[in-house]
Amino acid sequence: MALIVDKGNDESVGLCAFSITGEFTIYTIDEIKQKMSAYLHLYERFEISLADLEEIDSAGIQLLLALGRELRSQNKTLKLTAMSGNANHLIKTYDVYERLFIGVAENE
Amino acid sequence: MSDDSLQIFAEEAEDLLSLAEQALLNLDDLSDEGETLDGINDLFRTFHTIKGAAGLFGLDAIVDFTHVVESVLGKIREGLLKVDEPMVSLFLLSRDHLDNLVNHVFSGATELSAELKQTDETLLKSLNCYLQSAPITGEAETESEAAPDHTSSAGTITERDTPSVVSANWHISLRFGPNVFRNGMDPASFITYLHNIGDLLSVTLIDDAIPTWSEFDPESCYLGFEIVLIAPNADKETLEDVFEFVQDDCKISILPPNSRVDSYVRMIEELPEEDLRIGEILVACGALTEREKDDILNAQDKMKDDLTADGEAPKIEPLGQMAIDQQMVKPLVVDAAIERQNVVKVQRDASQQTIRVNALKLENLVNLVGELVIGSANSELNSRRLGDAELNVAMENLLRLVEEVRDTALGLRMVQIGETFNRYKRVVREASRDTGKDIELLISGAETELDKTLIEKIADPLMHLVRNAIDHGIESPAIRAERGKPVKGQVKLEAFHDSGSIIIQIVDDGGGLSKENILNKALEKGLIQEGQLLSDKEVYRLIFEAGFSTATSISNLSGRGVGMDVVRKNIESLRGQVELESVEGKGTTISIRLPLTLAIIDGFQVRVGESQYIVPLEMVEECLELNDSHQGSNTAGNYINLRGEILPFVHMREVFNAAERTMAEQEAKHRDNIVVVKFAGKKAGFVVDELLGEHQAVIKPLGKVFQNLKGISGTTILGSGEVALIIDAPEMLQRIETSSTQGKNSARVMH
Amino acid sequence: MPEVALDIEMERADAHQYLTFLQGGNLYGLDILNIKEIIEYSEITEIPLTPEFISGVINLRGSVVPVIDLSQRFSGKRTEIGKRTSIIILEVNDNDLRIEIGLTVDMVNEVLDIYPADIEPAPTLGKQVDTNFISGMAKIDERFLILLDVTNVLSIDELSMVSNVQGDIPQ
To answer: Which pTM does this prediction carry?
Structure first.
């Protein structure tokens, strides 16, 4: 599993792009949260790509929801930019797609 | 889905399928209606549980197939179908197919193989034939009649006079417990499974419980759901079963269609979120109308106001009580509902009399206990030196307790052999059919226990021997009649303990073995020489030599290349022996002798050269120092005169290629010692350098690297940290016997 | 722009780490993935009637582990036990079972990172070391490092072809 932070991070623009790859399940969730935590204070806008996920379970979705709530409380934004098949399936099952788009205007 | 949960499912399924097989095989007397119905009920419950478990893990193929089997069984229960032989066979085939499906899934495959699909279709066709005989609408009617009358202990007693909600759908409210993820479950699988029961009108995820990011523990589950399910013909039990595995940790409310408003009141009360918020969610997901929500919230407020007005804390009455107070339901009904819930609970507790234990953990425990035994023995020795009487008594008590712990720990690994024996019932049943012979399997000593690892390893050799008995042993009914034998052949599996070992016997009353045939075959294969004289025992032992086979036709059952020599090797690798006895025309008996436990032995420590060895104590008869009086009259052979008895012996130094004696030893005219060993009627002496006394040893197997090493059955670690080798006494005795008979024979030939 | 701690995936294939050691004057390497631990040379209990290159077994914290004399295996000469002689404990797979085996070596060196790109296939070295055992060669600072293929050096099937207590007990 890896939490990859896009090298193209431009702090002045305040955008931080995560790409979560490999395993995003209860087994890796602790580590991923720790890694994410480091960036939450540093940026204003967050994008997450789940395109290269191999495995995801509800712990992963829960983490995303928790992240969403946190960012909302800080008036920051969160956007999902890409999905893998299994992530899509879970998000659809739970019908939480909208909840993972926080503070993002319609046309963005 | 994680490997762990898949493994849990596979293990559970395996157990259940095994039970199903037994139940099916026990349906041999279909005229006994009571017993047959019991069996069908057992089967129904078993398949129902498998279906539920498979559903949790989203294993659709298994769920779909099991559902049909369950339906057929359901019909039998209702008296709409009668059980007959072909049906039982069909169930057996279906059970086998399920077994294959489970294995298939466990191997990681996501798609069914073409072969499995084919079998699936064929079986389903046959099963569905039975389902078409009764009108399906009839069943639906009974179910929908049941729904409004549905009484259950979760407090949703539907009462026809009081207002019920408009929604004709089921409402399921879930608040998963914090350990759901850790226990290997995933909420998504439950929701997915509901698709099998009905259509999901809405699924609303409640994440109110997720704390702030810094306090958020990502491995805990904070998720809840409000679900509306369209399933007018479902029953509450089915829905409750879906959540069987998480019901202990999670809050679950299941409200049937058209429930009373009170049920919603109660549910809303119990949910952690604020009433208004929940109310809004319920409206949003379609469980309640706006009007109903308002009514409920008002009713609740009113109740709270009423009570606080009296100065008491607001107390919500249990719904059952409320219902009784308002004289809506008779007390009897409520009691019955509560009692049923208790009964179900008791049943569940009773079935938990066994517990799954990780095999490695158990092995660890046994190892530790072994160390404990050694450690306490050392302590006892040391304490004796101090000569304190009270301390000695205390140490003796301690030692006794430790030995009890040891025996109990070893006992944990003991399993009844009956489980393994029962497997062969099926083999015999099918083999009889295939060969056209009539054979019954008799089992005795099923409660005899042996070590779990032994059981696993003995299963294959046993299977082979049983098949042999069926295939080559028992004659066809025609021949049996000719010989004046009962047409029904008998194969007996017996197990019992005998002097520290367990004996397993396979006895058949078939044609027996012809010594002449065996001798001829052995000559042919060059295993013996012309004119060689052999005792009966030795003749029969030839069968176990590699390259020997008396089967004139290679039958399907026994297969090729799996000979008796492989069976023998398997058994010997377990430190066991196998022997065969036969009477031509009457039958054959094969006896397997195995040690009771693999883990700890009481041993006698000796020194040979520079190395330490252990001889299993149960086989040691006596030890003595060799002196001149022991010299036998026959100085050519290795025999001593033990109080008039002739005892063959062997120099362990030579056997183990020990180093030459030191000069000092030679000068001191070191006397050899001899350990007299006895096992299964054979007796011999092992000549060693020094006798070192009793020693309890935790057996550490030598491992695959040494798997072909004969004469040593394992190692143990001495108190000094040194490694001592455990002598495989039975093996040594066997070889001594063989070489001494050879010696005798060659002596005879020479004359 | 300040450095942000990044967890970047390597674009090239990862380097493997190898434990290097000296044996009979040659430098060898073993992939550390198979190495469980390294211990000082300790008392070995001989097991009778086993090939010479199986030195015997040792007691490793309650486990009985067989030990192989690498020098004996390769060149037929026994390892001379010196101050620096060590035993490398390996874990090898045999049909889903993990088996521990020890190797006696003259001296353990250091752990090196070696990239797959820097490994060349094994040349024929003549009789000294059978090339079945070699998975490749790497050049480190002018010296050649012989990378051993653990599964071949310690093929369980081969090892277990030990001699037995002979059928004829000496008369």
So the answer is: 0.44
